[in-house]
Records
---
Amino acid sequence: MIGLSWDAVRLSLHVVAATIWVGGQLVLAALVPVLRGAGGDTVRLAARRFNTVAWPAFAVLVATGVWNVVAERHHLHGAYRTTLVVKLAVVVLSGGAAALHVRARTAAARGIWGGLTGVAALTALVLGVLLAG
Ligand code: HEM
């Protein structure tokens, strides 16, 4: 059996948080038509409930992300460094767009910021896999 290293703990926490932030958005988006069919405030209540796990997951992503950078600091040059900088910009975009999505007043604004949140989150995931590869 391979032993559980701190690197494995660090990456596992980062990946679990990514599954909630990225996967959770995709699943919630897929459920919206059914939730809307249930009528009343169902969509808003479900989205609010998702927020209570999504934002802590985002915080864990940032915290374990910093831990990743410290652990991989010997790699911080050339293409790795450029990929990380682009990833950080995409992560800021994902979090910022999510905050604007939550505060949006119109369906159009909610849709645009929600879509941007998802695309940026998926991009951050792929850039993360490139960094870890
Ligand atoms: C939306 C937010 C984020 C997502 C979805 C995300 C996703 C991922 C994924 C899927 C991996 C690959 C893990 C693996 O293959 O084992 C990864 C690796 C990595 N992430 Fe993130 N991440 C996010 C935020 C951050 C932040 C904020 C930082 C830095 C402050 C960061 C720094 C890193 C580093 C350095 C690696 C490579 C780790 C290694 O090779 O040991 N990530 N990320």
---
Amino acid sequence: MSRPEPLVDGHGRRIADVRISVTDRCNFRCQYCMPADGLPWLERDQVLSFEEIARLVGVLARIGVHDVRLTGGEPLVRRDFPRLAAMLAAIDEVRDLSLTTNGYLLERDAGALVAAGIDRFNVSVDSLQRDRFFEMTRRDALPQVLRGLEVLAGFPEAHPIKVNAVGLRGFTEDEVLPFARFAREHPYEVRFIEFMPLDADRAWDLAKVLTGEEIRAAIHAVHPLEPAPREPGATARVYHFADGRGKIGFINPVSDPFCADCDRIRLTAEGKLRTCLFSLHETDLRAPLRAGADDAELERLIRTAVWRKELKHRVNEPGFRRPARTMSQIGG
Ligand code: SF4
């Protein structure tokens, strides 16, 4: 039987990576994402079931989308989450299964997640100082998150472990060198991610973005850095410490976009296909799925949507319109 055509967009980019939000719920209230009181959550029956997610991943993986990243909200708050991970890891064509988490439940779940087949872990930590961590996330949870990281690091299969910190002007400057030391002293690859216009408070402003280049320069001045080659489709610009003590990365979607070779699409918790983080349009896959559409029909809907994938985001352009959804309703 001939292999299906790979999934490509109208700009000739091959799509190989899907980010799946398995819940819009979260146990943190990060300022650059959620309001203090949270957001109105989706009802349970609005959220895709494990079987529905696995079905869509199966369709996608058969047309070349081999990398699956599980996100949220906070994915570990979804009950029985490791069972979903195991279902997806069992799909032949899924080659890489990764997780983005705030780390609060890692101490409890690390073993089950590794056993389920998750290959890579991204843990969001925006400050290494307890009070400032609380200020940013509105949760006094830093010790718990660091314990979770330690437990995870105990599993050789869990590496590389990436620690992602948001780059927010007026906050992150005091975190830069502590995180550089953290990357040099622990088996984690720290990456700084520029603040993006996806916050629920709609407080984003270009002036609030501490750019990756500013952070890189501040680190380089103390701990010289050497650039590592960039993988196609990679979001991070990675550097080695010149003295060999670890790596550090910068994800600069605002100041240095990486859209040209973007290979990503996203699926929201309620089954909407988004072809870009900043998409203003979505394709509903839940309705046809629940109406009995077969795999061929789902594939057709996905190909049609992806063919119209945006060339790039327009954050730095006049007239930029931010999506109605917030980061927690899209997934990282
Ligand atoms: S902004 Fe959109 S096009 Fe650019 S890298 Fe992100 S998902 Fe891809």
---
Amino acid sequence: MTAHRTDDHVHDLLGIGVGPFNLGLACLAEPLGLDAVFLERRGELRWHPGMMLDDAVLQVPFLADLVTMADPTSRFSFLSYLKQRGRLYPFYVRESFYPLRREFDDYCRWAADEVGTVAYHREAVAVTRTHDATGPVYVVACRDPRDGSRSTYRARHLVLGVGSEPHRPEALAGLTGAVWHSSDYLHVRDRLLGADDVTVVGSGQSAAEVVSDLLAADGHGRQRLQWLTRSPRFFPLEYTKLTLELTSPEYSRHFRRLDADRRDALLREQAGLYKGISAPLVDQIHEQLYRRSLDAVPQPRLAACAEVVDGRTEETPRGSRHTLRLRQTETGEEYEVETSAVVLATGYARATPRFLDGVRDRLRLDGHGRLDAREDFSVDREGGEVFVQNAEIHTHGFVAPDLGMGAWRNAAILERVLGEAPYEVERRVMFQDFGVPEGARRVVPAGAAR
Ligand SMILES: Cc1cc2nc3c(=O)[nH]c(=O)nc-3n(C[C@H](O)[C@H](O)[C@H](O)COP(=O)(O)OP(=O)(O)OC[C@H]3O[C@@H](n4cnc5c(N)ncnc54)[C@H](O)[C@@H]3O)c2cc1C
């Protein structure tokens, strides 16, 4: 089946955007004989190329690959990839659950080649809905980013897997010149290494990886490095077993049943579950700082509770000169720091894609204009026609971007599309109860509405 058909053919399933989540869907759909096509605007799969650091590892075990948690027998598993690449024994001897990030990137390209249903250079620009004799049909208009040429695809079911976009805080909108989001780090690394001083803003995993890489690359301690975050501390990712149990279908179901304001508040409280720094990397950076403190070289400045409230850039003969105005969030005092290059490790944002404008009136949107996903991840008013991948953190919780839950979500989406479950969709996998245990005798507090 060719992925490049652009006529009146109606596919069963169409995925927009091919990151790990929709790629996993392509791989799980393939053995089912579903007529599926997946549109990707880039010319090949490249997983976070700006952060493909040599020594970076996946933050989840290899079992969180594209398919295994839904179908351990799948030919698209990470172990199958290693076998085909002739690297299964070295992986076995390596005895680590955590593949290199580069390896996962290569695995995704391998799986995309194997599955054969990805159409590249296809950027979805508009979606409309029509009908044929059989039922509703979604029409996806695409453009080829290389030459602007147009094509159209049709399908009964849509799955949106467009990921998230680099987030640039409003307070830093005034900066120009040498300022980049961490998603571009490796593309500008040489320029950063050439700068007299660099400031990294943010305290997630990407921020820490950038700081550690700059420290390692600046062996002679020539560069002045600042690491600033508004968070109360450079906190670690919580990674203990009972906390990891929240990465589960039953916790996601519990979370989704809370009211929207409670969910938003919980997500802010749960930053440590998905926004922190892996503990080994925290220790590695401390060790780098400790070793550097032996040398008479500029010591990096690390500051938590340092919120950037404004920024301006002056172009000088020696390049950009940025002035950042900071507020110490505990004392409220404001102060300024200067720097010549800024890395914004300020995360990613999800917006409702503009290409959905043509079907917006058929979608469930919450009070903030966010797609309001049901338990089965569908977001269309009828239900079961349009689904989201990793766009439902505000309804299903912090597990949305977690690779470990990708295969489960895809099994749930396929169950809804097919009306039966080709793969088991587990309802309960952990030891803890979340919310009121099923079957518990409920008590109505005195005075409460019956
Ligand atoms: C550096 C980094 C490392 C991470 N490491 C881990 C990890 O180890 N473990 C973990 O659980 N999570 C990790 N994550 C979080 C998360 O798993 C990843 O962000 C993951 O890539 C999300 O996959 P996705 O399929 O939602 O989107 P993406 O990987 O962002 O892919 C979306 C795709 O959609 C395409 N696209 C967008 N718009 C269109 C359009 N209009 N038409 C066609 N194509 C379009 C894009 O080109 C892109 O290829 C990491 C995140 C980052 C940033």
---
Amino acid sequence: MLVTYGAMKTQAKTLLLIMPPQVGLLSGFSAGLISIANYVAPRQPNVTVKIIDYSEASPSSAAEDLATVCRQFQKSVLFVGITTTTASYQQALALARRIKEFRDDAVVILGGHHATSDYEIILDRHNEVDLIVLGEGELTMENILSQFPDKIDLPGIAYKDKVSKIVRKNPPPALLSTTELDSIPIAYGEYGLIGTPGKFHHATYVSARGCPLKCSFCAVGNEAIRTKSIPAVLRDIEDLVALGYSKIAIEDNFFAHSRTRTESICSALHGLRTKLNNSFTWDCQTRVESLVRPDTITQMEAAGCEAVYIGVESLDPVQLLMLNKTNRPAIYLAKLRKAVSDLLQSKIECYVNIQLGIPGETRGQFNGTLSVLQDLGELALREGRRITVFPQLHVVYPGTVHFQEGLQAGLYSRDIFEGFTAWESQEMPVLLWLGEHFAHGTGGIPIGIMKGDLLKEGRFEVESTRVFNVLDSLRQIAEVEGINVFKYGEYLVSAARSN
Ligand code: B12
């Protein structure tokens, strides 16, 4: 019996919040589920809220355990919420089917990035899914628990009309305010952070949601940033340190998005580190432009920032436009050189996210990328430092501009993720190879290495020459003086390790 988190109540309503198996994916528990549990539990005291972490479990042991869990809550009205990324979607579906086998009266709810983006196809194809919560889930889940099934016009859900079989999408709920975000603690009661707390031996922490930018490959852009207040951030970080975490991954999409916020959060963190005898450090991800602002790097260094992930994505002007990272590539790349040079003169590690396997990449473009890396590598060597490249494989996620563009170009059909995720979940060698070499390789469609003519027909095969090209590019980048290429292997949920 795998661990379930949350106190048992005798009342007759139970919410299970489940992270499905994440075999071959980066290990790390969903902060989103903890946030929903912490929002719903105090507001719905009559509901038993349980979190179940199957992320390190094998699909078979998760299915087996779920049968036991269903029996345990036999007398309860059962709501089951399952989180989805595109890479874990098939695992989520398998759990939904399993629940319906034992409790066809259970209300099965999918949420998270994949379900939100592909809700129409999922609800049309899968009767094992009753509702999909679109986007931010706290308020919507609370409304479902207090009003479903009497009320179906709840903001923030999509569902298939039982009579017309038409998939309906309700208007979004109000997004949580700073006060509401502040009210949500980071740990789930006495259970702390669940499972693997975050990436690369760090604890995941999100102090702000949203990103106003519109990078065409990204699933979370085009939304105004909402932040927790500085006192709440300090409380959360102090809680993380009290829980024994000394390395914190601040996973805000765009950490240094505003000068004032960066100044105030850095001086606050500096004060907290002084109070806590420098017992924690943190890393973050931010954009190039935010790092060339005077003092930003100095403020972050003084506040205990150990590393910055710069979401560069490409070093080629044409690709930067295609990714909609910037509309002034030359200035962007000049700012990158300045930001990297300044980081190398600080104690902060310089991490650079670079996408490989971008469709149509020419040898000339890759050589251009190499020469920019050689220049940055020389900068690093001059300072006795090294820059770490975090390779990402260019993939198409649902709900992105690239997905729409591919659809309009006839590259694949609207329901492509149904077939693709089913294929990928059966192709463990491909999945593990992707996971080994790339943070973002699994789940999205690696359009640059797939056979395009087959993809049009909803069939899937990687083009081996393109795979070798990507591997060769990785090898050449690793050979650049002053550059390290990050290896993800040890941070994946491995098939062997999953029980
Ligand atoms: C922190 C983070 C991680 C961490 C922690 C894991 C996690 N799942 O949170 C780590 C590094 C481990 C990680 C791994 C991966 N990640 Co990640 N991760 C993020 C990041 C930066 C923040 C997530 C977060 O905590 N947000 C704050 C919380 C509060 O929001 P949330 O997670 O979105 O959850 C809210 C809603 O989505 C919704 N919701 C979510 N789940 C559910 C479930 C139910 C039932 C309901 C009702 C609602 C609901 O309600 C929640 C509260 O409002 C996001 C980008 C982003 N900004 O969202 C990418 C992101 C989610 N990751 C992504 C991907 C692809 C992955 C990997 C598959 C990469 C890989 N190949 O290994 C793995 C998946 C394995 C795993 N362990 O999850 C993609 C997903 C895109 C997609 N269509 O699938 C994102 C969107 C990044 C991107 N820009 O593309 N990730």
